[in-house]
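Hello again,

I reread your note about wanting to compare the complex against the isolated chains. To keep things tidy I'm splitting this into two emails, and this first one only covers the full assembly. Below are the input lines as submitted, including protein chains and any nucleic acid or small-molecule components. They are followed by the predicted structure of everything together. The single-chain runs will come separately.
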Amino acid sequence: MLPIIFVLPIIQLIILSNAATFEVKNIKFSYIDNDKTSFSRELIEKFDASSYFSVQTDFPSTKLASSAMLNGEVDVILEIPQHFERNLLKNRITDLAVTINAIDGAAAGVENVYINQIIQRFNKNAQTELITPFDLINIPKNIVSIPSFWFNKTLNYKTFMVPGILVILVTMITLFLSGMNIVREKEIGTLEQINVTPIKKHQFIIGKLFPFWIIGMGLLTIGLIIAKVLFNVPIVGSVGLMYLYTGIYILVILGIGLFISNFTDTQQQAMFISWFFAVIFILMSGLFTPIESMPQWAQHLTEFNPIRYFVEVMRMVMLKGSDFNDILPQFLKTLFYAFIMNGLAVWSYRKIA
Amino acid sequence: MKEEAVIQVENLTKKFGDFTAVNAISFEVKKGEIFGFLGANGAGKTTAMKMLIGIYKPTSGNAQVASFNVYKNPNEIKKNIGYMSQKFALYDDLTVKENITFFGGIYGLSRSQIKEKTAQLIEELNLQETVNQLVGTLPLGWKQKISFSVALLHNPKIVFLDEPTSGVDPITRRQFWEMIYETANNGTTIFVTTHYMDEAEYCDRVSIMVNGNIEALDTPKKLKKQFNVVTMNDVFLKLARSPSLTLPFGKGVKND
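Full-complex prediction:
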């Protein structure tokens, strides 16, 4: 079992970090060109040139294009109206119809942004071409924003995801192992034997916590090595600080696991409850969706989510090089949480029924 | 011979909701005695026993075990008793030696004591070849003997055995009872529940529980005389059937 505990998370880390990305690539793009002028062709070429779009086909009619989307053959349809070029030259205004498959809403949003960027760029070029000397006076100066991404200059998704996925692995393994643990002994009957011995409650709980704590720290070590060696994720901050925080964080998770274990009679029940919390904790951790975009009440709920703090701390320390003072709020909350959960675990462990 | 009582039970009762598993039972067990605790499935023996070893809280009544009160000093009781459950309860994924070390440690034995005890057990049970095997790989008879020895590691005043020989072959059962006799001769009190009526004959005194009540309590010899039968088996059948109350179906406590 011990090799499995270590091997599976490593495989997960490697696969997930490569696969879990918010970038949308290979968008299946098709168009209906009702204009067939140099302008319309130029616009289509812009999409062709983009690495995000793979231009599929041009459809002769809207109907055919729609049925292709129904069949899932295309993601985006751009319809260029008749007299596109003429309207643009003459009236300086024209319309374009863009249809996006929004089965996956998040991807559709991203695709929309890409499309808009390309059309805007095209628009600007067209403007410059159409400028007459008379216009020069009136043309407003374009405001161009030049983003600079701090702490992750190239917006590398792996840099962003690896610390987060590492967090999830450490959490899942320690939560499930501890959640199953006492309840397993209930099932086998060894717990009854332990309960007739004069062992103290806290001794028992510490004895239960310690091995899983070691396993959790071992996982962190392996994960960090993989992050550095395989993914080349920058580790800017202090590794010692990460270990210190993780050491306390794991106590929280183990406390939750043992607490669950105390309140359940079978491993199935414990598994069910552990899953419930794991899913909520992970989806509300800010790993996949930013906490800032959640509704207010949900943001308050995340205050009780230990994974949230762990994700924050790992990203802060690894990518930004935050020191102890920077992570102090998270550190104190986690420490408090650890005391509460383990207190509850000791309290709820009953030697006497 | 007048000897001190190591277990004193007065009107001990345990209710689970509406169901009375143990109904105001009273008895005494004397030092060095082999006390047989008999009853059909669901009669309440295991529940009664669990109150005495401090893992069930009695609903009412009183009990002293090893001169400690079950309400006030369950932990002191636990230091002075050994327990062997009907579910085999050593760790299957530890070796025999590791189990001995682990339980010795829990009972606060020193390293040298544990070493000494281990050597002693290896000698007594002929464990030379099995001591480093995982307990899970051993046959049940072996496990039960080791389990019993582990329950005795800390030299308890009383040992509680919950159906220690169920599912064990007759030879091992015989050997097991020899171990029980030897332990009792050394002054340890034995409190044993069993289904086997031939085993009841080996006990110094026997109590028979029916539907949460103790219906009979005496030496096997006197009980047989009292009910005018030849074997303990007949005593049991007479008692368990006589009120023609069917045993509580489905209401019983788990494990009993």
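For quick reference: The two ends of chain A are 32 Å apart (CA to CA).

B.
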